[in-house]
C-alpha cells in the first residue's frame, strides 16, 4: 500500500495516475485538504483503497498495520510562492513533513517528499543538489522548503527512514494543475489567454542581462517529474536531495511559441506586459537543474522538451472537453 499526500494536487494526482495506469497498482491511500473547488476531478478516475483528509491522517496512521505501508510519497504543501503567513508555512511545510518523517523512521517505511527549486533563490550559488549550503531563497515558501531540506540532511541514519529522497522540483507543468490559480504554470495561463483574447502575454524583463521573453527556466512536464519520483522509490539510491528537472533551461518565448503553433496561431500573437510589483525582486530569471546526481542514481529516461511536453499537454488535455488525466 502506498500513501500519497497532496493527492488532489497536480504532482500528487499524477503520481496516483502513474501507479494506476502505468504500474497497474491500485493499493493507494490518497490524502489531501481539498482546499479548492473541483479538485476531486484530479483523482476521480483513480482506483484507490481510500481517501483521507489531511487532518485525519495522523489518526489513520496510528490505527494502521504499518507492515502493509510500502512507502509515503509526501507531495502535500502550501506551494504559493506569494504566501506571507509564515506560521502556516511552518505548520504545513515543516511540522507536518517532520511528523511524517518520524513515522516513517520509527516504522522503517521509505519516504519521498517534495522540495523546490525555489530554495535556490536567484541562483547565485548555482543549482547543484550536492549541497544546500549558502542558499538564499527569495520568498517564505522557498525558505520553508530549504529549512526542511537542511533538517533532513542533518538527521543521522538511526533517526531517518530506511530510504528517503527530497525532490527539488523545477518548473513543473501539465494536466491537473487547473486548481492552482495564479500559481498555475505559464503554459496553462498562456492557453487561457490565447483561448480568450487570441494572444499570449509574457512578463517583460526587468533584468539587464535578459531581453523580454528570454528569461530562462528549467520547465519539466509533470509526467517526466513523476517518472523520476517512481525511479527514486524503485531504485532507492543514496538517500538525499535530488533535483527534478530536465537539465536544460528554455525560454518563456520558446514556451509561448510551442503553444501558438499548437493553437494554429503565429508568433505575432505573443505580447509582453509589465511584471507585477509583488514579483519584483522575487523573480527567478534563470533556473537549470544539475541532474548528474539523478543520472548517476540510474535514471535513464529522456525528458520532453517544451515542444514535446506542450504538444502532449495541449492535444491530449487542454484542448479536450475533459482536461483531466
Provide a descriptive summary of the structure in words.
By secondary structure, this protein is of the alpha/beta class. The chain has a domain at 2-173 and 221-246 and 289-303: Rossmann fold (3-Layer(aba) Sandwich), CATH 3.40.50.720. The chain is built from 9 helices and 13 strands. The strands form 4 sheets. The chain has a 7-stranded parallel β-sheet with strand order 3-2-1-4-5-6-11, sandwiched between helices. Strands 7-10 form a two-stranded parallel ribbon. Helix 1 (10-22) crosses helix 6 and helix 3 runs parallel beside helix 4 (140-154). The longest helix is centred in the first third of the chain and has 22 residues, at 86-107.
Helix content: 25-40%
In DSSP terms (H or I, runs of 4 or more residues), the helix count works out at 9
Give the termini separation.
Answer: 22 Å
Radius of gyration: 19 Å
Tell how many strands the DSSP assignment holds.
13
Low-confidence stretches: none
Specify the CATH class of one domain: Alpha Beta
Could you give the order of strands across the largest sheet?
A: 3-2-1-4-5-6-11
Strand content: 15-25%
Shape verdict: globular
CATH H-tier superfamily of one domain: NAD(P)-binding Rossmann-like Domain
Structural class call reads alpha/beta
Amino acid at each position: 500500500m502506498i500513501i500519497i499526500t497532496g493527492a488532489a494536487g497536480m504532482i500528487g494526482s499524477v503520481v496516483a495516475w502513474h501507479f494506476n495506469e502505468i504500474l497497474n497498482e491500485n493499493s493507494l491511500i490518497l490524502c489531501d485538504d481539498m482546499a479548492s473547488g473541483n479538485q476531486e476531478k484530479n483523482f476521480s478516475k483513480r482506483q484507490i483503497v481510500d481517501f483521507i483528509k489531511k487532518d485525519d491522517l495522523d489518526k489513520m496512521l496510528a490505527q494502521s498495520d504499518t507492515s502493509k505501508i510500502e512507502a509515503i510519497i509526501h507531495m502535500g504543501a502550501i506551494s504559493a510562492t506569494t504566501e506571507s503567513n509564515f506560521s502556516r508555512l511552518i505548520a504545513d511545510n515543516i511540522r507536518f513533513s517532520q511528523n511524517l518523517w518520524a513515522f516513517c523512521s520509527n516504522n522503517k517505511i521509505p519516504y519521498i517528499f517534495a522540495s523546490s527549486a525555489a530554495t535556490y533563490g536567484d541562483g547565485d550559488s548555482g543549482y547543484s543538489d550536492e549541497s544546500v549550503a549558502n542558499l538564499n531563497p527569495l520568498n517564505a515558501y522557498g525558505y520553508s522548503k530549504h529549512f526542511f531540506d537542511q533538517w533532513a540532511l542533518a538527521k543521522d541514519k538511526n533517526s531517518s527512514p530506511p530510504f528517503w529522497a527530497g525532490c527539488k522540483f523545477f518548473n513543473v507543468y501539465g494536466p491537473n494543475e487547473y486548481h492552482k490559480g495564479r500559481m498555475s504554470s505559464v503554459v496553462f495561463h498562456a492557453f487561457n489567454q490565447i483561448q480568450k483574447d487570441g494572444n499570449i502575454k509574457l512578463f517583460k524583463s526587468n533584468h539587464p542581462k535578459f531581453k523580454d521573453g528570454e528569461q530562462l527556466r528549467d520547465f519539466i512536464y509533470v509526467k517526466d517529474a513523476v517518472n523520476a519520483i517512481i525511479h527514486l522509490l524503485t531504485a532507492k539510491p543514496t538517500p538525499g536531495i535530488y533535483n527534478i528537472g530536465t537539465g536544460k533551461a528554455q525560454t518563456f518565448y520558446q514556451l509561448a511559441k510551442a503553444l501558438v503553433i499548437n493553437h494554429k496561431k503565429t508568433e505575432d500573437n505573443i505580447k509582453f506586459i509589465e511584471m507585477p510589483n509583488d514579483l519584483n525582486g522575487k523573480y527567478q530569471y534563470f533556473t537549470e537543474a544539475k541532474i548528474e546526481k539523478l543520472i548517476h542514481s540510474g535514471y535513464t529516461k529522456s525528458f520532453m522538451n517544451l515542444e514535446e511536453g506542450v504538444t502532449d499537454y495541449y492535444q491530449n488535455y487542454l484542448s479536450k472537453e475533459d482536461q483531466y488525466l
